[in-house]
């Protein structure tokens, strides 16, 4: 239910416009598809993804001999789900949490995207599931980042391993791993710096942090989550490209979906970059994080 509320802006905008389009056209023809394309691009679905989608739709319309626009809604939702998953199984793509031993999650993304907030929410959610969680304050660069993560740790009721501002992030995360191991924690979530102004430094720093994690914990990091702000549209796409060039991003936390009518960015990221959206941020509170489910998302658009 929360999911539906959080997506209200996108849902109203998208389903409202689609219903309007269907009412105006009645007949499925080339002009209908052109307007549909515009609608989807306007919802940030991304031009390439829209082209793929509309091609698929046209074929399906032919195959099923659909003439009336009223019948096309179901086909659109089916195809949106298909385009999201591509050739992969249509399943919710969950976190890679280990049954035994420590799971390490590295969280990356530019400042302001909602990294700290998302880490707090994720810690809360995992703790609710009965896991023991710890945080490592690896953003030692941004003033206030450590205190902010500490505050989220308190809210979630989990310990935060930290050093002073300006300390070596890899050393902080090394400490975090030691502490998590000695306390038998299930999950360590590692914050990182997000200053994209100095891309080379940032990417070197991430690489170093990753090396430490790989050395200290077998098969870690188990997830590298990139935090993207849904309201930044195609900017989020280019950040996703930059970060996935630098590290193996295993999933996206797409924040502020509640603050945009352009939730279509979800489809573009998965379809064009093959990175699954694992979580959606739907508000500023600790419980406003949802495991991302493409079926629920797409069918929610038409609800
Ligand atoms: P960071 O710099 O990436 O660590 O970003 P923060 O976690 O400090 O978040 C930046 C701002 O975005 C804060 O005001 C958060 O409350 C807000 N924020 C984060 N996630 C969400 C979300 O899912 N929805 C909304 N509406 N706001 C969010």
From TrEMBL:
Family: Belongs to the GTP-binding SRP family. FtsY subfamily.
Catalytic activity: GTP + H2O = GDP + phosphate + H(+)
GO molecular function: GTP binding; GTPase activity; signal recognition particle binding
Pfam families, sorted: SRP54, SRP54_N
Enzyme class: hydrolase
Chief localisation class: membrane
Record-listed E.C. numbers: 3.6.5.4
Protein name: Signal recognition particle receptor FtsY
Keyword flag Plastid: no
Subunit structure: Part of the signal recognition particle protein translocation system, which is composed of SRP and FtsY.
Entry superkingdom: Bacteria
Organism: Lentibacillus kapialis
Role of this protein: Involved in targeting and insertion of nascent membrane proteins into the cytoplasmic membrane. Acts as a receptor for the complex formed by the signal recognition particle (SRP) and the ribosome-nascent chain (RNC).
This protein's UniProt keywords: Cell membrane, Cytoplasm, GTP-binding, Hydrolase, Membrane, Nucleotide-binding, Receptor
Single Gene Ontology BP annotation: SRP-dependent cotranslational protein targeting to membrane
InterPro entries in alphabetical order: AAA+_ATPase, P-loop_NTPase, Signal_recog_particl_SRP54_hlx, SR_rcpt_FtsY, SRP/SRP_N, SRP54_GTPase_dom, SRP54_N_sf
Membrane topology category: Peripheral membrane protein
Record's GO cellular component terms: cytoplasm; plasma membrane
UniProt binding sites for GTP: 109-116, 191-195, 255-258
Residue span, SRP54-type proteins GTP-binding domain: 276-289
Membrane-spanning parts: none
Subcellular location: Cell membrane; Cytoplasm
Keyword Nucleotide-binding part of the UniProt annotation: yes
HAMAP family (UniProt xref): FtsY
């Amino acid at each position: 239910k929360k999911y539906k509320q959080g997506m209200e802006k996108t849902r109203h905008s998208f389903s409202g416009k689609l219903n309007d389009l269907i009412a105006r056209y009645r007949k499925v023809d080339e002009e209908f598809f052109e307007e549909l394309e515009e609608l989807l691009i306007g919802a940030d679905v991304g031009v390439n993804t829209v082209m793929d989608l509309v091609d698929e739709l046209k074929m399906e319309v032919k195959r099923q001999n659909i003439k009336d626009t009223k019948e096309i809604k179901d086909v659109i939702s089916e195809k949106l789900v298909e385009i999201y998953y591509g050739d992969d199984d249509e399943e919710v793509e969950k976190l890679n949490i280990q049954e035994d031993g420590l799971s390490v999650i590295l969280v990356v993304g530019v400042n302001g995207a909602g990294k700290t907030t998302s880490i707090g929410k994720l810690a809360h959610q995992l703790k609710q599931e009965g896991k023991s969680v710890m945080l490592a304050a690896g953003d030692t660069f941004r003033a206030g980042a450590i205190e902010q993560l500490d505050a989220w740790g308190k809210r979630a009721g989990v310990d935060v391993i930290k050093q002073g501002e300006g300390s070596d992030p890899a050393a902080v995360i090394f400490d975090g791993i030691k502490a998590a191991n000695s306390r038998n924690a299930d999950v360590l979530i590692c914050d990182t710096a997000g200053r994209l102004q100095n891309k080379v430094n940032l990417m070197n720093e991430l690489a170093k942090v990753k090396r430490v994690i790989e050395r200290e914990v077998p098969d870690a990091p188990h997830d590298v989550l990139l935090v993207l702000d849904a309201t930044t549209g195609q900017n989020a796409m280019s950040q996703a490209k930059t970060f996935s060039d630098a590290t193996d991003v295993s999933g996206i936390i797409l924040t502020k979906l509640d603050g945009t009518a352009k939730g279509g960015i979800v489809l573009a990221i998965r379809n064009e970059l093959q990175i699954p959206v694992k979580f959606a941020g739907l508000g500023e509170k600790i419980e406003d994080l949802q495991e991302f489910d493409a079926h629920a998302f797409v069918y929610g658009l038409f609800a």
